[in-house]
Amino acid sequence: MAKIKYFEEENRKRAGRAKESQSQSDREYERRKKFRLIRILLLLIIVIAIGAWLYVRYQGKVYVGYDVISSTERVKVDGAKDVKLGNSVLTYSQDGAHSVDVKGVTTWNQSFEIQDIRLAICQNASAICGYNGHEIYVQNSEGQLGSFETNLPLKNIAVAATGRVTAIMEDTNVMWMNTYEPDGRLLYEGQFHMSQSGYPCAISLSPNGDLLAASFIFVEEGNIVSNVAFFNYGPVGDNQSDQLVSTFTYGDMIIPEIHFMTNSAAFAVADNRLMFYSGSQSPKTKTEHILDREVKAVYYDQNYVGLVFTSDKAEAKYVLRIFNTSGEKVAERYFDMDYLGIFFENGTYTIYNSTDCVIYTMAGGCKYEGKFDKSVSLMVPTETPYRYRIVTDNSIDVIQLK
Q1: Do 82 and 392 touch, CB atoms closer than 8 A?
Q2: Residue 349: is it exposed, middle or buried by C-beta count within 10 angstroms (0-12/13-18/19+)?
Q3: What confidence tens digit (pLDDT) does each residue in 361-384 have?
Q4: The pTM is what?
């Protein structure tokens, strides 16, 4: 009986020791687990801190000059103009147009004789016609997409990134607003009587070509009235009369500019107001801003709209106000430099002319201020931050700020 009790006691001791050993093992495992977790958290904190330090340093870095990375020779015709077309440069004159890619290779060349050129660009697509002409040329940065003739004189055109084109044509007491594919195939036909709808001042196609925005001006009881109309070329518009999905009426103003920023964001500039619209099917008013002075120039891309005004301060000639797609003002800058162009890139905006360039962040910091070594007709950003393509009369150079 004593042996049985002895063995039972030994079993209990062994079980206790095993339980204690397991408990110690569990505590050790939990300790190691917590240590690994703490180590991972410390590493994450260090990585985040280094990233934040690099970001702040990058944001605060000021560039003092530039290096020429590459240079391609070119011959520019007198009177020709250069514009950005996607990642290429489009050069046009009364005698024709051509596009040069990032490697300096001519991707297409179109000859024509046009005295009063009308040019429309959407991302990497463009359309060219002559005021009161009949021929429309459609192309993108990679090549020509098509050309076609209209039976009525052209007054204005708009193009989508797909190459779809809307043309305003004038007939006796009637305006036509027709939309075509690049090969000239008629998709939609619209007729507007000026005594009822008014005269179309500006048009714009969304990048995908599904929406058309137009501003009309007419006189009602001796007062100037403007309408902004949106037409939908998709299934939603098919259920509406004349594809018309939304209209907005504004009294005592003229709206000479209307543009799509994206497929669902558009804006219009009047002589006394800036309006933003949103929606990919039936656009609605997003917000409006009353303008206290005349707009001198309008610049925009898919993220921002910049309006240039005459300055109200003696120390500066101009003031630039920048808005995002929601219509919120995100930056304002007084400047004294005569400008040739303004563009936006990665949270910065660049103001330049043929000899000078300044780059600011949206927060107001100056990243670069300097002069070009050559006379510049066009400056465009590249995919690399603070690397740009500058176009001169005899070369296309790629520069990197330093």
Answers
A1: no
A2: buried
A3: 999 999 999 999 999 999 999 989
A4: 0.84
